Input
Amino acid sequence: MNDQEEYLEYLRSRKSSFKRNYHKESLKEIARITESGKKETILLHACCVVCACWPLEFLHDAFDITVMYNNSNIYPSEEYEHRLAELKRYLKERWKDEIPLIEMPYDNVSYTEKLAPRADDPEGWKRCFFCYEERMREGFAYADANGFDWFTTVMTFSRQKDSQKLNAIGLALQKEFSHTKYFVSDFKKDSGQLRSNQICDEYCLYKQDYCGCVYSLRNKDQ
Ligand code: SF4
Output
């Protein structure tokens, strides 16, 4: 099967009705932790405040959350800084700095070199799969080395990203680490999108109009 055929096959598979209900699984896990009466710790990878604001509300009653901004994919650096500043502003205004934020080193030049072999991929295909896994693996490694109970990413909030794929990556990564578990999610479900819109309006949060890398920026401008 060539690359084009593989891509079309993948698109067909996304329409399949045989999908794991990760949202339902996440609700069960939250109910179990809430019933235990003891919050667990989670490292939450956040790519931007638009995707992060609703997951923070969703997770807050069950978890002690630490947010990680690990996004060397974002181009240019001004955009990276702007998304980070908006995330910080929101954590301060809504959460009164109760939720810690870890910023990982930013190296867009090296990161873009890694994406370059798949530069011409349509958005949501193998370049993106690599991009999800790269940032999630780094986040997972940090979570495991620092004793977090759980790791997850807000990326399942985005309608442009395949939650089945993101959760499959997370569950596969879990096998590489000894302590931290992967928290499955589908944050867009149950009106997540609507609730994020309401929060963004209330706090006048910046909504970017491209995913992040130089290739997604070019596609937007075409
Ligand atoms: S489009 Fe988004 S997810 Fe895909 S490679 Fe670019 S930054 Fe990463």
